[in-house]
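Quick one: structure for this chain?
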Amino acid sequence: MSRISYVNGMYCDHKDSLVHIEDRGYQFADGVYEVFGVINKKIIDYHGHINRLYRSLEEIRLKSPISKSSYLYHIQRLIFKNRIVDGLIYLQITRGVASRDFKFPKNCKPSLVITAKNLLTNEYENSFKKGIKVKTVKDLRWKRVDIKTINLLAPVLAKQDAADSKCQESWLIDEDGFVTEGSSSTAWILKKNTLYTTPLSNSILNGITRKSLIKGLKKNKLKFIEKKFNIKDIKYADEAFITSATQYVMPVVRVDNFKIGNGKIGKYADIFRKAYMEAIQLT
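Got it. Here's what it folds into:
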């Protein structure tokens, strides 16, 4: 069965899902996006993601092309049409098609694209059992990372740096030597039974998975602190993790050329994943 996507009001074969070459997303990265995880045909934390989408739209002064309630309808239709059991939904809105000009075009209809694909759960489980490796790189992104825009060149380069070093993720280091976040994830370290992650600011994305994990930590009375950490803190960490819509809670066993703890996943990996799974809302 071929994949089905949604493009500007139409469901179509994925291979025929096309947008115009003068779409401002293509020429200016003038747009925003969201990624929704799917477990057992249900959307993970839908309301958190859709509310963040509307915040991103507001921050770049872009009006939603459809009503807020319509997003859920189309996402659920794509889950059904693509027979998604466990997978992800990618949703992107750009300012639309217009002659190339830096200024906002007048009377331009925003473009909306939604795609869906299945994910193999055993790939996540295999990675979870082994843990992943992380490479630190300089954070070269713009100063409004709290907006989930499609301007992703800096994270792409960071992720490639990690891949070139046989790592699965990169952690971005700011000018003061602190970790902001991963190229596509939230960064965490565990020291003396307390979990640390960077406080919210314009320098990081307010991760929905981050929010759900914190909710689970509070519910289970697990210690955590929102506090910046650096390379020295990482070296002395007992465990480390990333969180994201597609990786849920994933243990980190190595950062650059040094092991985290004994280089294997620690006892808190299952504890934190269980706390996260208990905290998510399925729609």
